[in-house]
Specification:
Elements lengths: L4 E5 L3 H13 L3 E5 L2 H10 L4 E4 L8 H9 L6 E5 L4 H10 L3 E4 L4 H18 L9 E4 L2 E4 L4 E4 L2 E3 L3 H12 L7 H9 L9 H12 L10 E4 L3 E4 L2
Length: about 230
């Protein structure tokens, strides 16, 4: 069994090397890149299980790198950035990141978040633990085994968290899940009051499912309660 590989993409070499030291101690194989183009080349030529990504990098910034990754891959992405505004955090999550940490940071917390993301990702992608299951609703087909979604034959690219939310709701049509329920199921962590992460992911999910073009919404908002799948 190969070791888990983590890509660190940050133009601040001191920070990249510091992260690499801590992750190597955890037993991970670490690959470093110091600009966006190097990050893309590493992903194209090597098996990467998780990406730690800075936003402000030369040649290609972290947002653009994320778009390239999400076009073909669903491994977890953690943004590690000096950008601290809520807008930057929400934007990072919307385009495909699974987590967002701001600099300065503590290596212990970063390692803990890496471990949490990998535990969930690996568990959901192990063939012997994930049941073969396909959900179909009209033109929407959700495959848990392949973690893929098609809409009338068109492949819909979702982030890992978007897929997990969609599968959770679609597995129990009409059942209403509160924002807290969704966060606890998908992130596996205690929900913090005021966090809008779930709403951001639902909004992006609806856009990718082309709900603006439909009269019937696949994901229904139950005001004051939460969300339900309307398939």
């Amino acid at each position: 069994m190969r070791s888990i590989s983590i890509l660190i993409a940050d133009d601040e070499k001191e920070i990249a090397n510091l992260i690499a030291i801590h992750l190597t101690k955890e037993g991970y194989h670490v690959i470093t890149a110091f600009d966006g183009q190097e990050a893309i080349e590493a992903i194209q030529t090597q098996s990467i299980d998780l990406v730690i990504l800075d936003i402000m990098m030369p040649i290609m910034d972290g947002y653009e790198v994320t778009r390239h990754i999400r076009a073909q891959h669903n491994m977890p992405i953690i943004f590690l950035s000096a950008k601290t505004s809520d807008f930057d955090k929400v934007h990072g999550l919307v385009i495909g990141a699974d987590d967002y940490m701001t600099k300065p940071f503590t290596p212990i917390e970063l390692v803990a978040r890496v471990n949490a993301q990998l535990r969930r990702f690996i568990k959901l992608n192990q063939p012997n633990t994930v049941p073969k299951s396909i959900l179909e609703f009209g033109g929407l087909v959700i495959s848990l085994e392949h973690r893929s979604v098609t809409l009338y034959g068109e492949n819909i690219i979702l982030t890992p968290k978007e897929f997990d939310i969609l599968y959770l709701l679609a597995s129990h049509p009409k059942k209403v899940y509160s924002v807290e329920n969704i966060f606890q199921h998908v992130w596996g962590e205690a929900y913090l009051e005021g966090t809008n992460t779930v709403m951001v992911h639902i909004r992006t999910l609806r856009k990718k499912l082309k709900e603006d073009e439909k009269k019937t919404k696949l994901i229904k908002t139950v005001w004051g309660v939460g969300y339900a799948f309307n398939g």
